[in-house]
Amino acid sequence: MMQQNTPPSDNALVVEDLVVDFALDNAFFKRRMMRAVNHVSFTIPAGQALAVVGESGSGKSTCARALTRLVNPNHGTMELDGLDISQSNESLTRVQLAKQLQMIFQDPFGSLNPVHTIARHIERPIRIHRPELSNEQVQDLVIETLETVGLTPAQQTAEKFPHELSGGQRQRVAIARALATGAKYILADEPISMLDVSIRLGILNLMADMKARGLGFLYITHDIATARYFAERTAVMYVGHMVEWGDSDSVTQTPKHPYTQLLIQSVPEVGRKSRQGPKKSPSGQIPIWTPESVGCPFVARCPKASDLCKQSMPEVTQVATDHFIRCHHAD
Ligand SMILES: Nc1ncnc2c1ncn2[C@@H]1O[C@H](COP(=O)(O)OP(=O)(O)OP(=O)(O)O)[C@@H](O)[C@H]1O
Ligand SMILES: [Mg+2]
Questions:
Q1: d(CA 245, CA 52)
Q2: Ligand index nearest the alpha carbon of residue 222
Q3: Measured from the CB, is residue 56 less than 6 Å from ligand 1?
Q4: Half-sphere exposure of 99 toward its Cβ, with a 13 Å CA cutoff?
Q5: Could you tell me the CA-to-CA distances from 175 to 26, 112, 182, 259 in Å, in that order?
Q6: pLDDT band of 237, cuts 50, 70, 90
Q7: Across the chain, what does the average pLDDT equal?
Q8: What is the CATH number of domain 12-115+185-195+216-268+275-326?
Q9: N or C: the chain end with fewer CB closer than 10 Å?
């Protein structure tokens, strides 16, 4: 569970004890489930970002999908500015939820319609979420939104089609579309990983501007360096578990969990190539976590693993003011 300095509030996205199970689609194990998200909790205050980092399959996207109700959580509560957005709240429609919470994906091209102009992409959410506006007001808002995300001259951009823009410009359109709904929180799932390295920083800086305007971000990434650059807080996930979390500087500069330490060691530096995540030890396979699994999820790959680690899930240990880990060997 994620301990917080800020109590759950009316001005935050609050996830508490989220669990998501999927059926293992193996003919021999029809009834077996895998636990993709295992008792995850976090709070994102308005105007701040939480980075979620971890290797492929660690459950990062599933957390975001549960928030937008693309998947059904098995357990847990989710609140947006004090409003219950869990599946159980049936009075809240997807449209109402989309008005507050928007996703941005890795591939901006995939989320844009090739036969619609950029203007049309931005207009649509404005018309859905702000039906009170006149045509003229909608057009003004389209231009204003394009200017906000740096797509200038806006009038010219508005008339273009997605294929006429660069990857970075397309991601700006995706951000503009999220803004056009009036969203308060953005779930950005690897928003820069498909972009050319030279334009990544521009998109991160744009998102930082949005943060300064009061938007909250869940920033999903493989890249712990950008986590520290962009997000106030960072959570490290492994096999559905949050294993280390807290203030981004503290987590990335003085990582305490053996997994985070391995992740940071595997960040490529000049002259080093690996971008594959930490090396797996010969015995160290990434496990499939099930609701029946016990022990620490990292035990098979952990250099500090002991018998205790095989038997019981570590409790949360606070290692600094805003820095927590789940490890039996926290020292
Ligand atoms: N709809 C689904 N049905 C069954 N299993 C799923 C489904 N969605 C995700 N999973 C499984 O849940 C686990 C977590 O997946 P998830 O996509 O959340 O990982 P991720 O951390 O986002 O990985 P990546 O970095 O590759 O995007 C994986 O083992 C994945 O195979
Ligand atoms: Mg993912």
A1: 9
A2: 1
A3: yes
A4: 13
A5: 38, 11, 11, 32
A6: very high
A7: 89
A8: 3.40.50.300
A9: C
CA atoms of 62 and 64, how far apart (whole Å): 5
Residues 103-134 pLDDT 10s: 999 988 888 999 999 999 999 999 998 999 99
Strand ranges of the sheet holding 101-104, from the earlier edge strand across to the other edge: 101-104, 185-189, 216-221, 49-53, 233-238, 241-247, 323-326, 316-320
Main-chain dihedrals φ then ψ at residue 282, nearest 5 degrees: -50, -40
Does 57 contact ligand 1 (Cβ within 6 A)?
Answer: yes
Global confidence as pTM? 0.92
Nearest to 228 by CA among 256, 203, 253: 253
pLDDT, average across residues 81-110:
83
Per-residue 3-state assignment (H helix, E strand, C coil) for the chain = CCCCCCCCCCCEEEEEEEEEEEECCCHHHCCCEEEEEEEEEEEEECCCEEEEECCCCCCHHHHHHHHCCCCCCCEEEEEECCEECCCCCCCCCHHHHHHHEEEECCCCCCCCCCCCCHHHHHHHHHHHHCCCCCHHHHHHHHHHHHHHCCCCCHHHHHCCCHHHCCHHHHHHHHHHHHHHCCCCEEEEECCCCCCCHHHHHHHHHHHHHHHHCCCEEEEEECCHHHHHHHCCEEEEEECCEEEEEEEHHHHHHCCCCHHHHHHHHCCCCCCCCCCCCCCCCCCCCCCCCCCCCCCCCCHHHCCCCCHHHHHCCCCEEEEECCEEEECCCCC
29, 61, 65, 289: residue to mutate for ligand 1 pocket, most atoms within 8 A of CB = 61
| Cβ-contact 92, 84 below 8 angstroms | yes
Whole-number Å distance, alpha carbon 62 to ligand 1 midpoint, is 6
